[in-house]
Amino acid sequence: MGLVTPLLSLLRALVYVFLLAPIVVVVLASLNAGNFLTFPPQGLSLRWFWTFLNNDVFIDAIVYSLILAALATAVSLVLGTMAALYFVRHARREAEAVRIAVLLPLILPEILTAIALLFFFYEIGIGTQYKIALFTGHVLMTLPFVFLNVTTSLQGRDDAVELAARTLGASRLTAFRRITLPLIAPGMATGGVFAFIISFDTFGISFILKGTGSAPLPIQLYDYLRFNFTPEAAAVSTVSILLTLVLVTVSNMLFGRD
Amino acid sequence: MTEVSLLSLVKSYGKSTALKGISLDVGHGEFVSLLGPSGCGKSTTLKCIAGFEDVTDGKILFDSKDISRKLPEDRDIGMVFQSYALFPHMTVARNLAFGLEMRRMARSEIADRVARAMDMVQLTPYADRYPKALSGGQQQRVALARALVIEPAILLLDEPLANLDAKLRDEMRGFIRDLQKRVGITTIYVTHDQNEAMTMSDRVVVMFDGEIAQAAPPEDVYDRPASERVARFVGNANILDLAVADQADAETSLSLPGGGRLAVTGGADAPVSRLRVMARPEQIALTGPGEGHIDGRIAKRYFSGGHVEYHVDTDCGTLNVLCPTTQNVAEGANVGLSFDTRRLWPLPGAAHVTAEPAA
Amino acid sequence: MKRARILMLIAPVAALIFLFIVLPYVTVLMMSFRAPAEGQPYGAGFSVEGYRQFFSQSYYALSLPQTMGLGIVTSLVCLLLGYPVALHIATAPKRWRGLLYGIVLSPLLVGIVVRSYGWTILLGNAGVINTTLRNLGLIERPLPLMYNEFGVVLALAHVFLPFMVLPLLASLQTADPAVRQAARSLGAGRFTVFRRVTLPMSMPGIQSGCILVFVLAISSYVTPALVGGMRVKTTTLLVVDALIDQFQWPFGSAMALTLAVSAGIVVLIFARLTRIRWS
Ligand SMILES: Nc1ncnc2c1ncn2[C@@H]1O[C@H](COP(=O)(O)OP(=O)(O)O)[C@@H](O)[C@H]1O
Ligand SMILES: [Mg+2]
Q1: Atom 8 (ligand 1) nearest CA
Q2: Of A53, A71, A69, A64, residue with least CA distance to A214
């Protein structure tokens, strides 16, 4: 007993270091002044951030990923919230089936789903054109996160509040807008942030369905890393980590912690 | 003021039928309770009246106008929910103002009415609090005020006191009844607590399995229940199954196991061989052995402050007797039991089963 | 009419899942039975050629047990690392819990490419670990940390650790602390309480965590590709290679489905072995 407790504490501390190490290393590497990803760094500098800012490929990829994530999140928020409302308020015997169906994109291996979508879109003659397949894939991947978060925020709620609003003279729409929506807003915000981050970072779907032309950031980064070892990739990664942090912080400030 | 009429209300959920033809009239300013065990259809009745459920068959009239097809927001009702259903993201004042805002009332008018309503339920100091920061009893009063501030024609309450502790529940009972009388609003009150229904209502509607078993003033439901089931549900009931000795027009004479006779007023319309009569525990008095209608032996004694309850073994089964604490008998003692014969109630229904063919 | 309006809530998602999950998976199933062809993804008619191709070539067939093994080891590593952490968070004071929770979730906020990339910086021959060890004079030649199973498992465990900790935490937190106190009052020591009460009660979390990590690990692409440098051949890497680079759709589909079915069997066996009788 005497030795077990400190050993456990040590293991625990190591796990926390293990979790943070790769992320910290990426950020540190982006500040490297040298030409390669050497360690220890050859002095600190922001030169790789400048290189990245002047590299249209990465800038395009980031903008492309941001737009894709915003659109996919918007669609997922609407559809996922509707499904969550149905699941919590109205589903009876079919509830479990509904839950599993909506969570399927999360349960099934992403790469297999991506391949299945690729074949399907080729079969119906669209293929990877117009980014439709890619966009559909991103909506599918993000949908479960909105659904799960809105479901959680609905489940703790007393659904009599809407009925109360109706007896007080509110129409169905007004009751939704004035009562339900404010109550599930934190859940929607959390779900939306999750969805955005998932879309921004997802690899399998984008890798298989990207088609020709510009590609989302993770794909561009992966392609680059296969043949290059400069700290520019670390600079790009650091920027993407920062974007995520900003998103989480802003959402927390606006909607509080759910 | 509106009168509510339910005309053969039927409500089915798929194959199961929650309401099997409910007919009820509620008069102007009347306080009516729906009383029954859980699952008997009380809430369903209320939801149909409020418009949250479409009725499968039958009609609902407010002031003789059919409103069965109207949306909840157009029915002019105020409703208090078991969970209170306060809007958690609005302060007390905003909760009260909501219904008035829906009616597009002028701001000053709203402020005025909200202030008066808060005063009515003694919540003025809490105007700017959120519901979470209120006690259960305070939340209850906000819910009540929110329903009343819109001055609805009808007030519906669904087990509003179920979530309060015993002492607060007693207080709120009187509070709600006083308020209702002061405002003079037609009220339908749902509860599964017979005490609540008795103490508050002008009329109690007892429901079982989606049907009305009896609708009558509290005294009638208690003293003259329409069936054995009602008798047992609205209080403690001793049921004696006795042979008929003699059956006259207005009086039936029953023979007791010890050889005595018991005369009850009323009874069956047709000649019967046996009759089941009900005696409430406080309608039986303890006497010395041989001095009452029947004899028995004290099996159990429970002291409850104001009263003593005895379980007495007799030839008619174990009977419950409620006595003032001045009358003290030990367990195991032999006693006599005397019935208050004017209040013995022959139960309708069951007796007819044993009717003998006329000789 | 009311019911119809309610169904409108679920109709779009139902259509989405049916059209873009159910139908595509049916398409993959059919594709795996199509005939191969030269110069185009697939030919006319149906055959089992894709499956034959997979099982007859040891280069492909042997990747299957290797991938399963990789998934199982990753799950175990995650469980060993994740359990003390989950236990720690579950019993930590409230004000610490948020921070610890944040650390556990932090890998999720960072893309999978970036995280795998981080591991290449750490594990490479000129990476952080090897350089440090060499500068300390502990080793002469760099340790082979990357481009092998060790590196891949380590990186996979990092990537998927949150998916182990979250279900563990959920099952530990739903367990009533009074049960543990009751066991103590009955005379059980701390270790006995852990072995006889806490551990069995967290079994549902262990189950879902292991299954989740296993499935995610065997179907991941980026991490084995970057950290394994294509030298650790997982079936998933071979599937993508066959489909995207070699354009052999029936073969790739057959391989993907075989992987999915094998994973399903492993999961079923695991669920059976760890069956929970009391819930
Ligand atoms: N939405 C519903 N779907 C199916 N059955 C319901 C629904 N609402 C109520 N019921 C059934 O109708 C019966 C009456 O319910 P209710 O009116 O809530 O009873 P209570 O008297 O306890 O308020 C119950 O058997 C209940 O199971
Ligand atoms: Mg009810």
Answers
A1: B44
A2: A64
